[in-house]
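User: Please predict the structure of the protein below. I'd like the answer in structure-token form so I can feed it into my own downstream comparison script.

Assistant: Understood. Taking the following sequence of 163 residues as input:
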Amino acid sequence: MENLKKAYLAGGCFWGMEELFRVRPGVRDTEVGYLGGTNENPTYRNHPQHAEGLEITYDANETSYRELLDYFYRIHDPSTVDRQGNDRGSSYRSALFIQDEQEREDAQEVISIVDGSGLWPGKVVTTLEPFTKFWPAEDNHQDYLVKFPHGYTCHFERHGTFL
């Protein structure tokens, strides 16, 4: 029997994050959207202080939050503030949207492991923000790189597993 949970994270442009996570073992669904901002009903053109983020629905019997975080830190540079690739601004920050104390503990432990690895040019600057609400992005942004396989992304696997 499936044990479905959700995780919320941001690590730059949501197109590339979704494309890589959607095929991970145990991941049942992904949806791109906006997290952590100041307005209701954000849009691509109006999402002040929101991060471009990802809602991941996963089966906890097949993968764990820690394993999702391990992959998260392999596919984006968590040592840059408000930037991934050519994208700049708070929309592109590295952030985890924490739902409970266990997620906070897991996030802090994984960040410590990633920092200790020395594989990134600086320390992890990922923010741990309380999860409040996930706002799905417009339909044209969902599964974007499936629709446009040669579209823009700055995400790719950079390192082997940290765990």
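That's the full token string. The mean pLDDT is 96.
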